Amino acid sequence: MVFAASLSHPSSLQLSSSFLHEQSLSSSRSNHLTALPLVFSPSTLSGKQSCLQKKLIVHAKRVSGLEEAMRIRRERELQSTSKFKKRPPLRRGKVSPRLPVPDHIPKPPYLSSKLLPELSPEHQMHDAEGINKMRAACELSARVLNYAGTLVRPSVTTSEIDKAVHQMIIEAGAYPSPLGYGGFPKSVCTSVNECMCHGIPDSRQLQDGDIINIDVTVYLNGYHGDTSKTFLCGNVSDPVQRLIKVTEECLERGIAVCKDGASFKKIGKKISEHAETYGYNVVERFVGHGVGTVFHSEPIILHHRNEKPGCMVEGQTFTIEPILTMGSIECVTWPDNWTTLTTDGGPAAQFEHTILITRTGAEILTQC
After folding, report:
1. What is the pLDDT of residue 162?
2. DSSP structure class, residue 307
3. Crossing angle, helix 158-171 and helix 128-150, to 10 degrees?
4. What's the CA gap between 100 and 234, in Å, rounded?
5. Cα dihedral across residues 324, 119, 365, 171: positive or negative
6. Which residues are annotated as a binding site for a divalent metal cation?
7. Which domains are delineated in the chain?
8. For 53-63, how does the pLDDT look when each residue is reduced to its tens digit (9 = 90+)?
9. Integer Cα distance of 191 and 152 in angstroms
């Protein structure tokens, strides 16, 4: 889940799609030519006839690749903010008490502490038995997510969605992985409109035209299955629907390059290329992650262009969970230390799958 590796939390490595990733900008610089405004200057010609001749003077200067990238980003953000009508700012509702889990259901080890667990450095590889257990956990999380999506409609509260998800998970003999993870108080993440990730279910009613990402992770027989999807609530504007569609396509393109021996950086390249085609921006702060017997582990999966080393290995499982925005990719986190919003109030969309690397490609485990 954007717990995917993405539970953002100030006390440790912040997780989302979802771990907090802070990456320094590359020091390499490339030269480009940029044209300043065109200048026309008159000159007088000798002879019986004189006329005004326009001289075209193009002034050029060299700028670094970083400067050019920043200029392009600013232009995109200014253009994209005019594409949609902002909805009223998200306001926090009342958060109800944590729901109970029956004693007989096995629980993950991180519940012994309210601190956010450290990212495990071990890549999660599986034998045949482990793969079967991963498939079972992921299949359950996918079914729960699909069910949660059927509940999305105006007037429904995110707390009601959380309660329904919680009940379905425990009835299947599984544990809702977010519950108690680093002190997270609910069983699912519900991120509405400008909320990038880690929204805490509360008493706020969904409104006609809202969008909501529901992030489900279950812990079944010692394995975590992690997935999320952005749903439409009622009549959503065409520009926002397009953002959601392209975000899902970005996830599909990221998965398409995965196979044994492929470099991880190909994922971010494909996602960025597709997002930029439509003028959208890829959030860099939240990333994908290894998942299996441990909720969050290496490898960190960057969704933007990067030079992160490393290659995929057959039998490995991890999440890919890009977040796209129509405007700024900068964010602000509420005092609850979880709910993270775009700074400009623009909408954000996210999709996530857990995948298994195979010799020739990738198996999407969180697909019904």
Report:
1. 98
2. -
3. 140
4. 32
5. negative
6. 215, 226, 289, 321, 352
7. 121-364 (3.90.230.10)
8. 443 333 444 54
9. 12
Bridge partners of residue 61, in order along the sequence:
34
Q: What are phi and psi of 19, to 5 degrees?
A: -90, 150
Binding site: what residues are annotated?
Answer: 198, 215, 226, 289, 296, 321, 352
Q: What does residue 211 show for φ and ψ, rounded to 5 degrees?
A: -125, 150
Size (the chain), residues:
368
**CB neighbours of 289 closer than 8 A, spacing ≥ 6?**
4, 5, 6, 15, 18, 19, 119, 296, 297, 298, 299, 300, 301, 318, 319
| Largest Cα span, the chain | 104
**82 — pLDDT class (breaks 50, 70, 90):** very low
Residue 327 and residue 343 in contact, taking contact as beta carbons nearer than 8 Å: no
Cβ atoms of residues 296 and 217 within 8 Å: no
Strand pairing partners for 230? 213
Q: Which residues are annotated as a binding site for substrate?
A: 198, 296
Q: What is the pLDDT of residues 225-274, one digit of tens each?
A: 999 999 999 999 999 999 999 999 999 999 999 999 999 999 999 999 99
Residue holding tokens 């999320």?
228
- 276: three-class secondary structure by DSSP: helix
Residue 245, SS3 per DSSP: helix
To the nearest 10°, report the CA torsion of 144, 271, 332, 279. -120
Helix or strand (DSSP H, E) at 76: helix 65-80
Q: Mind listing the pLDDT tens digit for each residue in 146-181?
A: 999 999 999 999 999 999 999 999 999 999 999 999
- At 21 the three-state DSSP class reads coil
Which tokens hold the place of 172? 């299947």
Cis preceding-peptide flag for 88 (omega within 30 of 0): no
pTM equals 0.81
